[in-house]
Amino acid sequence: MKLIFEKSVPGRKMTLLPACDVETVELPAGLRRASAPALPELSETDLSRHYTELNQHVHGVNCGFYPLGSCTMKYNPRIDEEMAALPGFTGIHPLAPASATEGCREVLDTAKQYLCEVFGMDACTFQPAAGAHGEFTGVLLIKQYHLSRGDTKRTKIIVPDSAHGTNPATAHMCGYDVVNIPSAPDGCVDLEALKAVLGDDTAGLMLTNPNTVGIFDENILEITRLVHEAGGLCYYDGANLNAVMGVVRPGDMGFDCIHSNLHKTFATPHGGGGPGACAVGCKAHLAQFLPQSALMDGEGHIQVRSFAGNFLVVVRALTYLMTLGREGIPEAAQNAVLNANYLMQKIKGTFAPAFDRICMHEFVLDLSEFKKQTGVSALDVAKTLIDYGMHPPTMYFPLIVHEALMLEPTETESRETLDWAADVFRQLFDLAHQDPAYMHSAPHNAQIGRPDEVRATRTPVVRWVKA
Fold this sequence. Notes:
The protein is of the alpha/beta class.
């Protein structure tokens, strides 16, 4: 399809705003553009058709199976959007007086109460913009805790090799040296490797549980105990909280602080880069270091973001929590785990799981041997799935699994959909042995075929320039 700029016709307009009925005031010449912005000129019909055409070219969860993960593709009930669209929430100004924001404050306070219960924490903030920003805030809590005690020798953060890439990046940004530890053959933390790096220079451990390969670490209480005995603190990356919410609490596992993407676990879709929001929870001994808004909280602590964070995402999260309730939250987690294990067992006879054991809400396929036998890579399989009406799963992550495909079916997919998905994987397994060339050039039926991804990365075209 054409870009919106290519559909532009000089002089074509549509009226969106009424004529100005008050005196106009011109900006000083020094603040005005020398030339008009290069905006497309379209009629209302042109614009409506353009966005409808874009929608038809996109594969979303409402179009078909989307096993990429809970970041974007999980349950997003319409009522959450309706609550976030209420005029009393959308029309409020962040500088409004306290008398005009009582409802908003109640939303924030209630959401904190509910999430602290889910997290097993004592205090919470919504200031961080999203997950990596939440990690940054959580590690700063750990840093401030040690500094407040005069314990300046703690310069290292331990990060497992299966961690999200943001974990070591966050620790480094907070001024720590990153100590990487390997996974054991079962995909979990190698306890002996952990013991070998613990010492009086350990500030903390960053860990996701269930971890990035979808396994709940059976030694989690021992892991947090060892870190605490060394004088460090334990940070919980809540990326996979969807698998355990309402079933087991990170605080009860021994973690001192946590971040959770509200747009990942608690409904708001995060496709296309936003909107995002993050809750950072902590135990009582870290609560005094939480960032607080001088305006919203009446305190002058350091802020990591303006005001109280992305408020409307908190509205959506609270609506999700109140809709599902105490019974529905763990049921969603249990259904996510059930769906993942069901699909893994259905696929297992063809593609091999990286770790052949009970998983949580996601599992990883290892296509290394499959590629040696057929020449078909994980990328080829992912691209061919598009031709079968399925969005590709996460590719080549985690890095500890070569030729990895990570599938996360989420809690809302039916048994019939999972059976169909497993059948598609079986068909691709056979196709790879019969016609690998077809898969090397897939997809064949999509709006865009196989792009040159190296060229796209090295010489991206990110803006339109008029010829």
